[in-house]
Design goal:
The chain is mostly helical. It has one domain. The protein is 77% helix and 0% strand. It contains 10 helices and no strands. Helix 1 packs antiparallel against helix 6 and helix 9 packs antiparallel against helix 10. The chain is globular. The relative contact order is 0.13.
Length: 192
Protein backbone atom coordinates (compact mmCIF):
# COMPACT_ATOMS: atom_id res chain seq x y z
CA UNK A 1 0.00 0.00 0.00
CA UNK A 2 1.28 3.48 -0.88
CA UNK A 3 2.26 5.95 1.81
CA UNK A 4 -0.74 8.21 1.06
CA UNK A 5 -3.06 5.19 1.37
CA UNK A 6 -1.59 4.35 4.77
CA UNK A 7 -1.94 7.98 5.88
CA UNK A 8 -5.58 8.00 4.75
CA UNK A 9 -6.22 4.73 6.58
CA UNK A 10 -4.68 6.23 9.74
CA UNK A 11 -6.65 9.48 9.39
CA UNK A 12 -9.97 7.76 8.90
CA UNK A 13 -9.35 5.26 11.71
CA UNK A 14 -8.51 8.14 14.06
CA UNK A 15 -11.64 9.94 12.81
CA UNK A 16 -13.81 6.95 13.79
CA UNK A 17 -12.14 6.45 17.17
CA UNK A 18 -12.42 10.15 18.03
CA UNK A 19 -16.09 10.25 17.02
CA UNK A 20 -16.93 7.20 19.11
CA UNK A 21 -15.08 8.61 22.15
CA UNK A 22 -16.90 11.95 21.81
CA UNK A 23 -20.28 10.17 21.53
CA UNK A 24 -19.56 8.09 24.64
CA UNK A 25 -18.39 11.11 26.63
CA UNK A 26 -21.28 13.29 25.44
CA UNK A 27 -23.87 10.68 26.36
CA UNK A 28 -22.34 10.20 29.81
CA UNK A 29 -20.99 13.54 31.01
CA UNK A 30 -22.49 17.02 31.00
CA UNK A 31 -19.06 18.69 30.95
CA UNK A 32 -18.24 17.51 27.42
CA UNK A 33 -19.08 20.93 25.90
CA UNK A 34 -16.49 22.62 28.11
CA UNK A 35 -13.95 19.93 27.34
CA UNK A 36 -14.48 20.25 23.57
CA UNK A 37 -14.33 24.06 23.79
CA UNK A 38 -11.02 24.03 25.65
CA UNK A 39 -9.72 21.29 23.36
CA UNK A 40 -10.61 23.46 20.35
CA UNK A 41 -8.85 26.51 21.82
CA UNK A 42 -5.75 24.44 22.68
CA UNK A 43 -5.84 22.94 19.18
CA UNK A 44 -5.96 26.38 17.54
CA UNK A 45 -3.02 27.57 19.64
CA UNK A 46 -1.03 24.42 18.80
CA UNK A 47 -1.90 24.78 15.12
CA UNK A 48 -0.61 28.35 15.09
CA UNK A 49 2.54 27.37 17.00
CA UNK A 50 3.07 24.42 14.62
CA UNK A 51 3.33 26.84 11.72
CA UNK A 52 6.60 28.08 13.22
CA UNK A 53 7.87 25.30 15.49
CA UNK A 54 8.20 21.52 15.41
CA UNK A 55 6.58 20.77 18.75
CA UNK A 56 7.52 17.27 19.95
CA UNK A 57 4.65 14.77 19.82
CA UNK A 58 2.40 17.30 18.03
CA UNK A 59 4.77 17.36 15.04
CA UNK A 60 4.90 13.54 15.04
CA UNK A 61 1.09 13.37 15.08
CA UNK A 62 0.85 15.91 12.27
CA UNK A 63 3.42 14.06 10.15
CA UNK A 64 1.54 10.79 10.63
CA UNK A 65 -2.03 12.04 10.19
CA UNK A 66 -2.16 15.45 8.48
CA UNK A 67 -2.54 15.93 4.75
CA UNK A 68 0.64 17.27 3.19
CA UNK A 69 -1.04 20.41 1.82
CA UNK A 70 -2.14 21.52 5.31
CA UNK A 71 1.15 20.92 7.14
CA UNK A 72 2.45 24.37 6.13
CA UNK A 73 -0.84 26.26 5.90
CA UNK A 74 -3.28 24.91 8.51
CA UNK A 75 -1.85 22.08 10.64
CA UNK A 76 -4.54 20.02 12.32
CA UNK A 77 -7.32 21.43 10.12
CA UNK A 78 -9.40 18.25 9.97
CA UNK A 79 -9.16 17.57 13.70
CA UNK A 80 -10.02 21.17 14.60
CA UNK A 81 -13.07 21.22 12.34
CA UNK A 82 -14.15 17.80 13.64
CA UNK A 83 -14.10 19.09 17.23
CA UNK A 84 -15.80 22.33 16.16
CA UNK A 85 -18.54 20.41 14.32
CA UNK A 86 -19.17 18.20 17.34
CA UNK A 87 -19.22 21.18 19.70
CA UNK A 88 -21.64 23.11 17.49
CA UNK A 89 -24.19 20.32 17.25
CA UNK A 90 -23.95 19.68 20.99
CA UNK A 91 -24.72 23.36 21.64
CA UNK A 92 -27.41 23.76 18.97
CA UNK A 93 -29.48 20.60 19.20
CA UNK A 94 -31.03 18.29 21.76
CA UNK A 95 -28.57 15.65 22.94
CA UNK A 96 -30.09 12.80 20.91
CA UNK A 97 -29.98 14.77 17.64
CA UNK A 98 -26.46 15.98 18.43
CA UNK A 99 -25.28 12.42 19.09
CA UNK A 100 -26.91 11.19 15.87
CA UNK A 101 -25.23 14.05 13.97
CA UNK A 102 -21.84 13.14 15.43
CA UNK A 103 -22.47 9.49 14.51
CA UNK A 104 -23.21 10.49 10.92
CA UNK A 105 -20.12 12.70 10.80
CA UNK A 106 -18.02 9.90 12.23
CA UNK A 107 -18.98 7.26 9.67
CA UNK A 108 -20.25 8.94 6.49
CA UNK A 109 -16.83 10.42 5.74
CA UNK A 110 -14.59 7.72 7.21
CA UNK A 111 -15.95 4.41 5.98
CA UNK A 112 -15.81 4.97 2.17
CA UNK A 113 -12.00 5.41 2.05
CA UNK A 114 -11.59 2.32 4.24
CA UNK A 115 -13.62 0.30 1.72
CA UNK A 116 -11.51 1.66 -1.16
CA UNK A 117 -8.46 -0.20 0.14
CA UNK A 118 -10.26 -3.54 -0.28
CA UNK A 119 -10.38 -5.71 -3.41
CA UNK A 120 -14.04 -4.90 -4.15
CA UNK A 121 -14.52 -3.92 -7.81
CA UNK A 122 -16.97 -1.03 -7.44
CA UNK A 123 -15.03 0.56 -4.59
CA UNK A 124 -16.55 4.03 -4.76
CA UNK A 125 -20.14 2.78 -4.78
CA UNK A 126 -19.42 0.12 -2.16
CA UNK A 127 -17.73 2.74 0.01
CA UNK A 128 -20.69 5.12 -0.17
CA UNK A 129 -23.13 2.31 0.62
CA UNK A 130 -20.99 1.07 3.52
CA UNK A 131 -20.66 4.63 4.87
CA UNK A 132 -24.42 5.13 4.59
CA UNK A 133 -25.19 1.86 6.38
CA UNK A 134 -22.72 2.50 9.20
CA UNK A 135 -23.96 6.10 9.61
CA UNK A 136 -27.59 5.02 9.63
CA UNK A 137 -26.99 2.22 12.15
CA UNK A 138 -25.02 4.50 14.47
CA UNK A 139 -27.54 7.37 14.19
CA UNK A 140 -30.49 5.03 14.79
CA UNK A 141 -29.08 4.30 18.25
CA UNK A 142 -29.98 7.88 19.20
CA UNK A 143 -33.00 8.82 17.07
CA UNK A 144 -35.94 6.97 15.46
CA UNK A 145 -35.19 5.03 12.27
CA UNK A 146 -36.99 7.49 9.95
CA UNK A 147 -35.03 10.38 11.46
CA UNK A 148 -31.75 8.46 11.10
CA UNK A 149 -32.54 7.90 7.41
CA UNK A 150 -33.17 11.64 6.91
CA UNK A 151 -29.98 12.60 8.75
CA UNK A 152 -27.82 10.07 6.95
CA UNK A 153 -29.19 11.07 3.55
CA UNK A 154 -28.57 14.73 4.36
CA UNK A 155 -25.02 13.92 5.49
CA UNK A 156 -24.25 12.00 2.29
CA UNK A 157 -25.64 14.79 0.11
CA UNK A 158 -23.71 17.45 2.03
CA UNK A 159 -20.53 15.37 1.72
CA UNK A 160 -21.10 14.87 -2.03
CA UNK A 161 -21.70 18.57 -2.66
CA UNK A 162 -18.54 19.50 -0.77
CA UNK A 163 -16.49 17.04 -2.85
CA UNK A 164 -17.27 18.86 -6.11
CA UNK A 165 -14.18 20.45 -7.64
CA UNK A 166 -13.77 24.24 -7.62
CA UNK A 167 -15.97 24.52 -4.55
CA UNK A 168 -15.18 26.80 -1.66
CA UNK A 169 -12.78 25.36 0.89
CA UNK A 170 -15.46 24.52 3.45
CA UNK A 171 -14.63 21.63 5.71
CA UNK A 172 -17.08 18.73 5.70
CA UNK A 173 -16.40 18.08 9.39
CA UNK A 174 -18.30 21.29 10.12
CA UNK A 175 -21.01 21.16 7.47
CA UNK A 176 -22.09 17.48 7.59
CA UNK A 177 -23.18 17.43 11.27
CA UNK A 178 -24.89 20.83 10.99
CA UNK A 179 -26.88 19.84 7.88
CA UNK A 180 -27.75 16.41 9.31
CA UNK A 181 -28.74 17.81 12.68
CA UNK A 182 -30.84 20.61 11.22
CA UNK A 183 -32.83 18.27 8.97
CA UNK A 184 -33.31 15.72 11.75
CA UNK A 185 -34.51 18.44 14.12
CA UNK A 186 -36.96 19.81 11.53
CA UNK A 187 -38.23 16.33 10.67
CA UNK A 188 -38.80 15.52 14.34
CA UNK A 189 -40.49 18.83 14.99
CA UNK A 190 -42.86 18.89 12.01
CA UNK A 191 -43.41 15.28 10.97
CA UNK A 192 -43.22 13.13 14.10
Amino acid sequence: MKKEGLLELGRKSLHIITGIVIMILASSFSWINYFLFYLLIAGIVLSLLSLRFKIPLIYTMLKNFERERFLKTFPGKGALFFVAGCLLVLKLFDLQIALASIAILTFVDSVPPLVKITNIKAKRTAGIIAGAICSFLAASIFVPVAVAIIGTTAGIIAEAILLKPNHYEVDDNLIVPLVSGTLMMLFLRYFM
